[in-house]
Design brief:
The chain is α+β, with helices and mostly antiparallel strands and 171 residues long. 27% of the residues lie in helices and 30% in strands. It is built from three helices and seven strands.
């Protein structure tokens, strides 16, 4: 397994739209395992392949307290959403140290393939609902800061560009 580099906003590659996975093969299973290692190392509750510069529809999540319930979603489709909306504070591993409120569906149903290529459905609420909607946005090239005002987004962009300049990473 390997820990992968996470792209940081405003990297334009975060706006790439992911393509569906054609077959859940050894290459995809290796990607999933590397993404899980990367997510746990970064202490995130989710990670989309887009964030590690792989533009295929793959998400990993773990919203358990105990950090031992990995969920793998390949080619996820949202098949239902509650009318009820909820505002929650969000963060993103691609937008470090920035947190702000985003309104999303309170609960959703998602259909996907698992690590073995088997179909399954997941009903998510609470943090899992926030997380799966946040991750599916990444696959469409959307970062949560795009829900914020242009003023906030520009301030975040400037702050992160300055941080990247002052604290370069070798990638
Ligand atoms: O680790 C993460 N925490 C989080 C908290 C509130 C709402 C969404 C998230 S997802 C984020 C990891 C990440 O960036 N996934 O794309
Ligand atoms: Ni994110």
């Amino acid at each position: 397994m390997a820990c992968l580099n996470i792209l940081r906003y405003p990297d334009p590659r975060l706006h790439t739209v992911a393509r569906p996975v054609a077959a859940v093969d050894e290459r995809i299973r290796r990607l999933v395992d590397d993404m899980l290692e990367t997510m746990y190392a970064a202490e995130g509750v989710g990670l989309a392949a887009t964030q590690v510069d792989v533009h295929e529809c793959v998400i990993v999540m773990d919203t358990s307290e105990t950090r031992d319930h990995p969920i793998v979603l390949v080619n996820p489709e949202q098949i239902w959403q509650s009318e009820e909306m909820r505002v929650a504070e969000e963060g993103c591993l691609s937008v470090p140290a920035i947190y702000d409120k985003v309104e999303r569906h309170a609960s959703v149903k998602v259909r996907a393939l698992d690590r073995q290529g088997e179909g399954f459905e997941m009903h998510a609420e609470g943090l899992a609902a926030v997380c799966v909607q946040h991750e599916m946005d990444h696959l469409r090239g959307k970062v949560f800061v795009e829900y914020l005002s242009a003023l906030k987004r520009d301030r975040i962009r400037t702050k992160l560009l300055k941080k990247a300049r002052d604290e370069p990473r070798d990638d």
